[in-house]
Amino acid sequence: MIMRREIRVPEEIQATAKWSKLTVLDGIIITCSFGIGFLSKGIVFPLLQIPYVAFFPIALYILLLPSMDVPGRKNYQVALTVLKKDRNVYKSIDINSFINKIEGEEDAI
User: Fold this and answer.
1) Per-residue model confidence as pLDDT tens digits over 77-99
2) Cα gap 50→44, rounded to integer Å
3) Radius of gyration of the chain (CA)
């Protein structure tokens, strides 16, 4: 007796063009960053201009890589989340002190 196997094939396949870990758009942005570094090298001390131009695409490459800690996000997105993080410390309200405070306000009226 021959048994048939059914394999489900999704109707829509979402594929993005990638170079290893980066998308094509990321590659274009990194390539354009050479030009941005070259055009803005005049604001840097002359001895540091070549490392400055080289640093631009290297820094962008690192920022555009997928995050190892947060799946589905890139490093720059994680960095922005950390910078925008709320630094306040929230504590629960002690119900007894809250009630005493309210009762004290009622006595003052």
Assistant:
1) 999 999 998 888 888 878 888 88
2) 10
3) 28
